[in-house]
Fold each of these.
Amino acid sequence: MEQVNAADMCRFLVDYGANLMASGATCIRLDKNVRRIAAAFGMDVEMTVMPRHIHLTVIDKNTGEVITSISKVPDTGISFEQNTELSRLSWEIADRKMGYADAVRRYEGIKAGGGLSAWSLLLLVSLANASFCRLFGGDIAAMIVVGVATLAGYYMKMLLLSHKVDVRLVFMVCSFVSSVIGATDMLFSIGSTPDVALGTSVLYLVPGIPFLNSFSDMLYRHYLCAFARFADALILTCSLSVGLCAGMWLMKASIF
């Protein structure tokens, strides 16, 4: 393997770990990936994972040099594609003996990668939520209404987040917009399953990944991160509920 000093490795690994966590990785995946990369270069690491920061110490087994660095977890949003690519990078370094310079170039390329375009993502999310509506027993009319509601709500979400609006307010506004559109099925008696249309119109906002990650972190005794992720998911769910209730109240709709 290409020789690299502990300082460079520490800077690389702490930034790698922060971006891996930001993309939606669990603490156990973060720990394994970082240790895998360090071991490939003949180094060991001690790491403390906090809800908003990564505290990393790299120990060079050959020279005994010890370097410590702290990095803030960026607010980039969950990305399955980046999560997968970063994990794949750790295996390529370990199995294919990728050099440090090549690893850094590949890492920077992953961070800069755009993934799906915003419009493609908007369309796919709308189709997915309409499919969920069908899965819960919605008819064709309900699926169309849910698709339009998701399209409007998710576009609003992308627009507000691009302007750095607080994510809790974003969830309230988006769930309100989607629930108002979703209630049109009930208001105008378009289909035979208006309750399903209203109930699934905000399903795309449910923070399922933070809930699952918090459970995984708890199993592996990362209690601080588990509690923080669970609290964040709970607050977002409450924000979603506020917007949904406001939309139902405005449209005088009820699913009960």
Amino acid sequence: MKQSRLGLCVIGCGAYAAEFAGSLGKVRHDIDLHFASRDLRKAEAYTRRFGGRSYFGGYVEAAESDEVDALYVCTPHHLHREHCRLGAENGKHVLVEKPLAHTVEDAAAIIRDAESLGITLMVAENIRYFSQVRRCKRLVSEGAIGDLRLINFQEEYPFRAGGWRSQERLNGGGVIIDGGIHKFHFMRFLAGEPDSVFATELPKSMTGQEGEDGMVATLRWSNGTVGVINHSWTSGKPLPPAVQVAGSSGRISFEVGSGQLTVESGSSERTWRFPPDNRGIPAMVQEFIECVAESREPEISGREGLKDLILVKTAYKSARSGEVENVRYLEHP
């Protein structure tokens, strides 16, 4: 970093880039925010809207700018490899939206580029930074509900994928790689690495969508713990993202983003309430800033993002084969 504030340029001015920029909270004071788009007018509009320092009408121009220390890659999945490499080649640190890439091959290449060129690479997996999720992890680690037995995470959301998201070869799949990957990461964060996955696609309910719009996946760990993910895009009313974690002596439950979490143990019940945390985005970005400043590996490193992607791809393999599939991570990306 060439100044006390991180010069962070948002690459790709789509809808989620706006959500990201609008959710930075207090960490916004630690960032000089820039915007880049192939549409100069859009980059300029985002700069005005979110109080950016400057804007660029191309990604190369942004990556070459001395004002920019890092890129937040928020472009379509199939372009992540190209844009992460653009940052790395210009000495820019990279915060890249999940999934790390649309294929395992591209994800591994992104990691190799970051390591060989010496830049910080972090995957923007914000679910890990929700206050509820952090507290859930802590409670499980402290044995508040005994030994883990079952982790259940379900959500239905009224979303109609369009453009590149509706094309399986560009998105890398459908709902599971797009939003469901959060749930796979949560399972890994809470219980470690599962041994196997069995997944089934639901009958289609959305038109114009090449990839799946619903899937149920069952994960199993060597100690017998089971995880169930049920995630769909739907044309109906939303079923908010809900988590139940059952242990041998209690249960943790929360609705993601609700600001509260409940623990039941025997006849007792306790509820924690948390202040708004902007979906974990400020804490996630703070982690990125600190990792860049301290030259240390982020919690959600490229290798962690690759594991999430491999787990998702294993679910796809199971859905195609109709068989339980063992999870095999790459030893050397």
